[in-house]
Design brief:
87% helix; mainly alpha
């Protein structure tokens, strides 16, 4: 992976992360307020699952 690939991935990440607050800021606020109530263990498991899916996608793409 070279610098251009990294910058492209970072740019795509920022575009995807910006969709929710742009399209529905009130919904994002409600979702974040509910997220505070989720136990740490469940958040960690969701994060782990997300990372694993990301690694699989990267593996398949490369």
């Amino acid at each position: 992976m070279n610098g251009a690939d990294f910058l492209a991935a970072l740019g795509l990440f920022l575009v995807l992360e910006g969709i929710a607050p742009f399209a529905n800021p009130q919904g994002l606020k409600r979702g974040l307020a509910r997220l505070v109530q989720v136990p740490d263990r469940e958040l960690r498991m969701a994060g782990l699952g997300s990372m694993l899916v990301g690694v699989v996608i990267l593996f398949v793409a490369r």
